[in-house]
Amino acid sequence: MQNVNTETLLIVFVALTGAAVLLQSFVLLALFFSVRKAAKAIQEEMAELRGIVQPVAKETREFLARVGPQVEAVTKDVAEMVHGLRAQSVELQVSTTEILERVRRQTSRMDTMFTGVLDTVDRATAVVSQAVTIPLRQISGIAAFLRAAIDTLRSGGRAPRAQATHSAADRDLFV
Fold first, then answer.
1. Within a 13 Å sphere around the CA of 67, how many CA atoms are in the beta-carbon half?
2. For position 97, what pLDDT does the model report?
3. Which residues have CB under 8 Å from 152's CB, separation 6+?
């Protein structure tokens, strides 16, 4: 009986293994059908998406084909404009430097001229002042002499009194 029991157990294990393999094949078959169904759904979605994306891609290509040369032309024009502005700014800088140099030279020249004129006016003023002051002093001296001589003659030969130049109240003041 021990053989029978072992054989029975072996048959039971083989039957269970067969049932498990059969169950596994049913699960794999169900998985196959669900994957096939999902693949079919994905293919339909892809076909629908292609139907939407392809016209958009075509319109985009056409748009870029139409606009591409215009964008290139605008880019070229902007590059030329920037180059022209750069050249003009260099010319403007050169002109500005030249003008400032001329203004500096003219300012220096005007300064020299005004300095010369003012020096000449100063010298002329000194000469005129000297030409007028010296004769006035001489005339003043002669007038003082004449006054003193007349005062002496009027007073009858007495020496004139010295006039006080300071008062008694000014004694403590110093200037």
1. 6
2. 93
3. 158, 159, 160
Supply the pLDDT for residue 133: 86
Task: Tell me the CA end-to-end span of the chain in Å, nearest whole number.
Answer: 160
The predicted structure's pLDDT at residue 169:
59
Concatenated DSSP letters of 92-149: HHHHHHHHHHHHHHHHHHHHHHHHHHHHHHHHHHHHHHHHHHHHHHHHHHHHHHHHHH
Q: Cβ neighbours of residue 67 under 8 Å, at least 6 residues apart?
A: none
Q: How far is CA 32 from the centre of its chain?
A: 71
Enter the tokens of residue 122: 């100063």
Q: Give pLDDT, residue 157.
A: 59
Length of the chain counted residue by residue: 175
Instruction: Give me the pLDDT at residue 29, please.
Output: 96
DSSP 8-state secondary structure symbol assigned to residue 106: H
- Residue 174 and residue 162 in contact, taking contact as beta carbons nearer than 8 Å: no
Domain boundaries, the chain: 2-156
d(CA 49, CA 42): 10
Cα 34 to chain centroid distance, Å, stands at 68
Q: Please list the alpha-helical segments (H only) found in 156-165.
A: none
Per-block average pLDDT, block size 10, for the chain (175 residues)? Answer: 76 95 96 96 92 89 89 90 91 92 92 91 88 86 90 74 59 58
